Amino acid sequence: MKKKYLFTIFLSILAIIFISCGSPLSDYNNEITLSDYNDEITLPYDKTEFTYSINDAIENSKTFVQQSIQDYSGSRSAFAEPKEDDKWQGFIDGVWNVPSNVYGTDLVAARNSLVVNTEHLGNLQNMVFHKDEYGHITKGVFQYKGHLYYVLDKGNYVVLSSEDDLDHICVDQEGYTSSDDFSNFKIWVWDKDANGDFYRDGNLGYAYTLRNVQMLDGSYATVTLSGFNYYYYGFRVWIQGTNGKTEKKPYPNQSEDTYQRPTDKKLQDFIKLSESKDYDFIYEVENKTDKKLTVQNYLRNVNERNFDRGLITQTEPVVIEAGNSYQFTYKLDELKNEWPEINSTYLGCFFTPEDKWQCGGWENNLLQSGKIHKVVISSECNA
Question: In sequence order, what are the beta bridge partners of 353?
Fold first, then answer.
């Protein structure tokens, strides 16, 4: 048999920075009144720059908040009341998720408390925001126990500073992501599948919690910060005073709740044995992490706006040992001929590092005959 040569290599170097997924839990029962969470700002700050209230931010994020409430009436005057199913919390694709309505269903900021995995993480702080010339929220300020705190975006996450700059940071996740005081979570909303059934679509926003933070007044607190789409929704800060000895516990061992991706293993039937040489395309994954890596090829209709609903089929999971590689081999014309009604079919891959969450992508169309698409997975911090 005449040997075939694969003459072009697509090299996608993927350096995934895996941050340990923390574990919120125990609630510290102490005596804190609602007013502690609803301080009016009496200290001097630039009232000409910070003019947009938290009430306005909550009101304008109503559409997003209501996406985790199935039967909301659509009323413009009031939020619908979340039911138990709307308050669901749990794992989606290996990441702990909470509903979008944590962003506030009450226009009195301090009444919006945050409970994640049964741990009370505090009440929403009453703050005011700055808007830039484009109408985008860029930062905020609030008062807590006699001190001002500025909410700022450090680039990858949100921090608190004692001044309106990044030179006076007092609450920062840097250096804490592997500590017992750190945890994070993401946010889900309801979506509908092709049959019109609701399912929870996760990983939409990011927030993190630091426990036993010594605040500027000397007291201790659990602080949770979120900046998801803050241009439009505003930042969120929840604070719970503690005794400085709050402990978290692991997330419960429960099954995941996620959209049921296609169970059809038809793509598996199109994989060619490398020994046969009856293929013209290779999708290769190299595992440069120090643990096992589970991967799956998938086919997706990229014309579908929703990623999950665009999935057509996928292979069975393949486990790649640390330091090893795996090649999926196909004859691309066979894939194109099997789904001729879909003119925007792309081949991609799901990646699930051991003890981490799943991500996916790094796709190519089916016009790549004679080529290799190689993805290298590496880790830049401890698992």
Answer: 293
